[in-house]
């Protein structure tokens, strides 16, 4: 198969330009066509999502969701929608220049996630992270450097969208130095439930969902659900992947605890064994994957930019952690009952959050050597200086806009800004900086002149004048 491609065909402005362009030809591979078709379907999905969401909600819906300015948020969403539409137009033009056709029979259903502005913002955050991961993963299937560069020019814009959606969801604008690449099958585990009516020719991984009802934080013990479990998770492991890590963190599925020091997106799979998954799409094993991935956001660091975009309205703030033995606060009439409290109708399942020490012990124990009798080797003991002891954990109490206090989309739980536990400020180890020492005279400088014994002493200052400053200490 031959094709003719404008060197800059993926630039929207040049697509509309009637000026002659320079062309070159080469044989296109089937994998490159598949990557561009798949990327175009994702761009169609993103365009449809923003188009439907913007059309559905009014100014009051954005302010009720806690945003300081509805116009500011809508402006960003409209810009992102315009970008996604331009990406799709360019990808379809490129496919036709290959002699191939784009897939245009897909339909996209977002009814379940366009229930309110807060849910829409949470889904948009997933959508942009999925886009970034899809372009990264698809790069290994593109051999032509011009096509690779063109796809990369879209990837960088998707990453800018990702940053803005992080901010709008009260997360860290740039939470990590690296993102996480995913294969097309892994992407469909996240985006597939929205897509119907078309055959992409790509087998999809089983979807995975977190069933916890609370905000995710370091120390949270996660629970999952997936049609791939077939009612039995015995012997399975959860695999947590962070951007930039060489491999995932494998943990037994019944001890899948969010590690400390995590901030931002985490990709999570469930596998049939404890062998870590490598963080590259070329070499990552697939045979032991039972379900996933899903994207979970662990927002532990708040930034001032998110506070500027939000007001004190929206969801009520989470209460401060209570001391042991403090009685639970009473629930106001009509307010949702605290987590785990029996309301007489149903009992909400609570999220178990354990200390960072316990979380670290579980993570270390998952790969710790065993003793000769098969038991786990004892953990080392020792005195920990008080200054190095971890801060006491906080148990988040979600009170989001949803009935159960959470926003869950394709397995990812999102909590509003006011429900994200604020980590305690680190104490200033040194207190206020010490005052600068008095200047030391230059060794080579001349000593101060000695007043002439016969000289007339200086006149005394007039009454009421300020006293002369005291001489510096010797």
TrEMBL record:
Signal peptide location: 1-18
Region (Disordered): 311-345, 365-474
Superkingdom as given in the UniProt entry: Eukaryota
Keyword Signal: yes
InterPro entries, A to Z: Ferritin-like, Ferritin-like_SF
Amino acid composition bias (Pro residues), ranges on this chain: 316-327, 390-399, 458-474
Pfam families: Ferritin_2
Record's protein name: Ferritin-like domain-containing protein
Gene3D superfamilies xref list: 1.20.1260.10
Annotated Low complexity bias: 328-340, 441-457
Keywords: Signal
């Amino acid at each position: 198969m031959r094709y003719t491609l404008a060197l800059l065909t993926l630039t929207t402005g040049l697509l509309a330009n009637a000026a002659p362009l320079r062309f070159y030809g080469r044989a296109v591979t089937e994998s490159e066509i598949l990557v561009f078709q798949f990327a175009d379907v994702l761009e169609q999905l993103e365009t449809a999502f923003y188009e439907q969401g913007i059309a559905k909600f009014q100014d009051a819906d954005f302010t009720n969701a806690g945003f300081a300015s509805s116009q500011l948020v809508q402006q960003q969403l409209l810009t992102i929608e315009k970008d996604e539409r331009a990406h799709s137009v360019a990808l379809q033009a490129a496919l036709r220049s290959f002699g191939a056709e784009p897939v245009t029979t897909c339909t996209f259903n977002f009814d379940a996630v366009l229930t309110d502005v807060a849910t829409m913002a949470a889904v948009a955050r997933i959508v942009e992270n999925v886009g970034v991961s899809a372009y990264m993963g698809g790069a290994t299937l593109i051999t032509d450097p011009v096509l690779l560069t063109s796809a990369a020019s879209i990837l960088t814009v998707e990453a800018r969208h990702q940053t803005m959606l992080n901010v709008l969801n009260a997360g860290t604008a740039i939470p990590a130095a690296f993102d996480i690449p995913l294969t097309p099958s892994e992407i469909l585990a996240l985006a597939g439930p929205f897509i119907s009516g078309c055959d992409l020719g790509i087998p999809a991984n089983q979807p995975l969902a977190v069933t916890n009802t609370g905000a995710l934080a370091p120390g949270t013990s996660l629970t999952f659900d997936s049609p791939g479990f077939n009612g039995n998770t015995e012997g399975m492991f959860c695999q947590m992947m962070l951007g930039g890590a060489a491999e995932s963190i494998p943990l037994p599925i019944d001890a899948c605890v969010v590690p400390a020091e995590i901030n931002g997106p985490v990709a999570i799979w469930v596998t049939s064994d404890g062998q870590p998954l490598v963080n590259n799409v070329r070499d990552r094993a697939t045979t032991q994957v039972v379900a996933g991935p899903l994207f979970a956001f662990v927002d532990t660091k708040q930034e001032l930019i998110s506070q500027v975009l939000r007001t004190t309205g929206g969801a009520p703030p989470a209460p401060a952690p209570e001391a042991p033995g403090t009685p639970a606060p009473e629930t106001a009439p009509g307010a949702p009952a605290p987590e785990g409290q029996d309301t007489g109708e149903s009992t909400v399942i609570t999220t178990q959050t354990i200390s960072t020490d316990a979380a670290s012990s579980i993570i270390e124990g998952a790969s710790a050597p065993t003793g000769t009798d098969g038991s786990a080797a004892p953990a080392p003991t020792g005195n920990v200086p008080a200054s190095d002891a971890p801060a006491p954990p906080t148990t988040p109490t979600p009170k989001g806009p949803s009935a159960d206090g959470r926003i869950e989309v394709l397995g990812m739980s999102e909590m509003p800004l006011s429900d994200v536990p604020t980590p305690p400020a680190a104490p200033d180890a040194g207190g206020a900086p010490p005052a600068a020492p008095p200047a030391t005279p230059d060794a080579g400088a001349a000593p101060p002149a000695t007043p002439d014994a016969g000289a007339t002493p200086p006149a005394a200052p007039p009454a009421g004048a300020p006293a002369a400053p005291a001489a510096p200490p010797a």
